[in-house]
Design brief:
Helices cover 0% and strands 47% of the residues. Strands 3-9-8-5-6 form a five-stranded mixed beta sheet, with no helix packed on it. The protein has a four-stranded mixed beta sheet with strand order 2-1-4-7, with no helix packed on it. It contains no helices and nine strands. It has a single domain, classed as Cupredoxins -  blue copper proteins (Immunoglobulin-like, Sandwich). By secondary structure, it is mainly β.
């Protein structure tokens, strides 16, 4: 039992790890390609002339992504928690953009 004059220890949540993403025809640049498991904040900027989206996959299955495309010159934020160690593919699923090279790899490491 704690003494009445000892305050309880507060649980401090860690801020999400920020990851910068740049998209343009036909490439995705990821500015922090290795992260630890946990909460992530993807700051996505469309530097191209076409609209782009961002989908995150692990072993071919979608684990997260934007609900809508980002217009040229605009930004979006995606918050996602990745707990499993391994590689994740970041792709643009607009039209044939993925086939033309709009993909990158994010690695979650210990």
């Amino acid at each position: 039992m704690l003494a009445p004059d000892v305050p309880p220890v507060a649980h401090v949540a860690r801020a999400p790890t920020a990851i910068g993403i740049g998209e343009r025809e036909f490439a995705i640049a990821i500015y922090r390609p290795r992260v630890h498991p946990g909460a992530l904040k993807f700051n996505i900027r469309n530097l191209g002339e076409d609209a782009h989206d961002l989908v995150i996959r692990r072993k071919g299955k979608r684990v997260g992504g934007l609900a809508t495309a980002i217009k040229a010159g605009h930004t979006a934020t995606l918050r996602l928690t990745l707990r499993r160690i391994g590689s994740y593919q970041l792709v643009c699923t607009v039209a044939d953009h993925e086939a033309r090279g709009m993909r990158a790899t994010l690695r979650v490491v210990r």
